[in-house]
Each structure stands twice: as structure tokens, then as C-alpha cells.
Amino acid sequence: MSEFFHMGGYALYVWLSYGLALVILVVNIIIPMQRRKKHIAMIKRRLRRTPAEK
Question: Which of 11, 24, 46, 50 could pair covalently with 7 via S-S, beta carbons 3.0-4.6 A apart?
Fold first, then answer.
């Protein structure tokens, strides 16, 4: 098992690559969710400000 985690001497590069890929995937999920919430809040504020047309 320790040989698997050691990766033949390249463990630092391999695990850093996995970690970086994981961080990028998480950021690609979180940022669009935050932007969506921000845009929805902005649209709600605009709708509240404009008087209803009759």
C-alpha cells in the first residue's frame, strides 16, 4: 500500500496534480452557483423597483 502512495518517487507531482484538479472542479461548481444567486437577487430587486404595468 505504501508503494502505491509513494508512486515510484513521483508522489509529490501526482498528488499535487490530483489536488489541483479537485480544486479546479470544486471552483467550477461553486462560482456559477454564486453568480446565479447574485443574478437572481438582482433581477428580484429590479422587479420590485419597477411599477406593475396595467
Answer: 11
Q: Are 14 and 7 in contact (CB under 8 A)?
A: yes
pTM of the model: 0.66
Domain boundaries, the chain: 23-54
Coil vs helix vs strand at 18? helix
More confident residue, 52 or 19: 19
**CB-hemisphere CA count at 13 Å for 10?**
5
Q: Average the pLDDT over 32-54 and give the result.
A: 89
